[in-house]
Specification:
The chain is an alpha/beta fold and 315 residues long. Helices cover 35% and strands 15% of the residues. The chain has helices at 33-45, 61-69, 102-113, 138-147, 161-170, 191-196, 231-247, 254-263, 278-286, 294-308; strands at residues 3-5, 12-14, 18-19, 50-52, 79-84, 118-124, 151-158, 175-179, 200-204, 268-271. Helix 1 packs across helix 2 (61-69).
């Protein structure tokens, strides 16, 4: 697995990491913890060293599985990213970003992950006002935790160009997780700014929650967390998928093309598709073995410019 610099932090991360939201998560109709552990083990064997989780993923179970599975590798050889807020097990009745609870929630994550530090701690899609380091107090606490060695870097998980610019320009964040894929390119013009500030970019939802894998078509109906998409959105995605598929080079899977599209941006450090099975995880990692031609990347950019920029698909 090729590795890239994570901004100016000195960390080197695998081009494709593992997004751990799906690990034995009932929200995805998944329950098998043994399969989840095998996903972690086989990811390590494949050269993946970047693992993204959150305390709210399956109420802490994702972190517990990673904590057990990552014992198979020396701690210094893996990069662990977790988050703050959205259904933290330490405070199940609250869903806020109060500065005074960051340490408590982080300590819970450290216990589940069986480590005394995490490499990155992100605010988990907070309200936009909490992305402004000129007024938000969370970053002062994150700096203290960094000084104490409980975290190596901190930042924000976010979705929009304006949010990325705000975090980069008003905080000392060096880790930003951003939604970006062939069907959602809105933040891309802020990527150079992040690079100039030494920020490592983590791309989330690179397969549009599985849609860009090519496994689904317009008549698909979901019963897991993707049932949020109404029929008209599914129909629109299906039409766009056919246009995307027509651009993919012969012999290349749609999933590989979608992952390679995100890796075509030099500012991106790592991409974190999720996986429901060992086979799916290994197939995702294999996408890093080749590169999408520049002309195809530009044609995918053009789909956004012409048909999506003014009316983006809902996540």
């Amino acid at each position: 697995m090729k590795r890239r610099a994570f901004g100016a932090t000195g960390m080197q991360v695998s081009e494709i990491g593992l997004g751990a939201w799906q690990l034995a998560n009932p929200d995805w109709h998944l329950h098998d913890t043994n399969e989840a552990l095998q996903i972690v083990y086989r990811s390590l064997e494949a050269g993946c060293n970047f693992f993204d989780t959150a305390p709210g993923y399956s109420n802490g179970l994702s972190e517990e599985i990673l904590g057990k599975g990552l014992k198979a590798a020396p701690r210094q050889d893996v990069i662990i990213c977790t988050k703050y807020s959205h259904h933290n097990p330490e405070r199940p009745d609250e869903d806020d970003f109060d500065t005074k609870h960051i340490r408590e929630v982080l300590e819970g994550s450290l216990r589940r992950l069986q480590t005394d530090y995490v490499d990155m701690l992100l605010l988990h899609n907070p309200p936009r006002e909490l992305m402004d380091g000129r007024v938000a107090t969370q970053y002062e606490e994150l700096e203290r935790l960094k000084t104490e060695g409980k975290i190596r870097e901190y930042g924000v998980s976010l979705d929009w160009k304006s949010e990325l610019e705000l975090v980069v320009e008003t905080t000392q964040s060096k880790a930003i997780e951003v939604m970006y894929n062939a069907f959602y390119q809105e933040p891309r013009d802020a990527f150079p700014l992040a690079q100039q500030h030494g920020v490592g970019l983590i791309v989330k939802v690179p397969l549009d929650s599985g849609w860009l894998s090519g496994r689904y078509r317009g008549d698909t109906r979901f019963t897991d967390v993707r049932n949020r998409w109404p029929p008209e959105v599914l129909a629109r995605r299906a039409a766009l998928l056919e246009r995307f598929a027509a651009l993919v080079p012969p012999g290349m899977s749609l999933a590989h093309a979608a992952l390679q599209y995100t890796l075509a941006r030099p500012e991106v450090s790592t991409v974190i598709p999720g996986a429901k099975s060992v086979e799916q995880a290994l197939d995702n990692f294999a996408a890093a073995d080749t590169r999408l031609p520049d002309a195809v990347v530009q044609a995918i950019d053009a789909i956004w410019d012409a048909d999506l920029a003014a009316n983006p698909l809902p996540w």
